[in-house]
Amino acid sequence: MRCPALAARARFGVVFFGASLISHECFRAWMRLVRAGEVMPVYAARLVTRAADKTGYPVVLSEREGLGYDFLLRMAATDRPWHDLAFVPEYPAFWLHFLVSASYKVLRLWPAPPEKRLVPASPADRGLPPSEEAELRARFPELPHRVFRDLSVFLYHGLVRQVTSMPLDLLVERALARDVPEHREEQQRYLVRQVRDVVPHFAPRIAAAAPPGVYAASTGMNVALALEASLLTGAPLAPVIRASGSYELGVRLDDLLRDATEHGHVGDRAITNSWAELLGVREWYEWVPLP
Fold this sequence. Notes:
Layout: H1 4-7, H2 24-35, H3 42-55, E1 59-63, E2 71-74, E3 83-87, H4 95-109, E4 118-121, H5 130-139, H6 145-179, H7 184-198, H8 204-209, H9 212-233, H10 239-242, H11 247-258, H12 264-279, E5 286-289
Parallel strand pairs: 1-3
Antiparallel strand pairs: 2-3, 4-5
């Protein structure tokens, strides 16, 4: 069987799969190209190959609209025999960093026995707690109920996504800086772009529109991201970040990250929970086994 995705692999030098193109034939063709070093630098090919060999599933990359994040990794599951890595079209220059980072994350989780491979989850229809919803309603008194409810659910899941992904993201960035010096230039380019993209979130108009608890938690995590990026790239902090009312909270989050002693999947969950407890959102999600 001919894999249509392979015919279009020249776009960024890597195979991009759409959901309708997934097949075992495509997987095998993809891994042959990876192992041969035809689609990425040798160091990255080795890492992607290790992830596939260790888990029995390939890491498959695709460009996807509407993720709401720069990239999203879903680990292989019973109904999806591949690690699904998607990124938004606005970030095409960083596909290699996403792939290297995702492979590292897979390798951190997979040593756990299957019943201990836990991922965060929360009910799809859950919105903000009453106190934060009241603050949100005060800011948008005219919104129809359905639109208001959708906004509450959106903010809730956005914050859950941020607190359950950013600590691990930053731990992996540290590990890559330490272990994969060949990737440093790619990594630094990505971190500089990521901080540049979060700076507008510190604007007064965003603070005025968001419930205070949600805004403080989100910007505190963005401060921690900026602190880590500054450490890894040498770039100075933007004045708006240092002047943020969430700066001290971000420093405390970053301290938790730097003081972490547990490693691997257990440590990843521990630091995530520590951040969530400090931010007051530990009850917003639970850890469940991969399906």
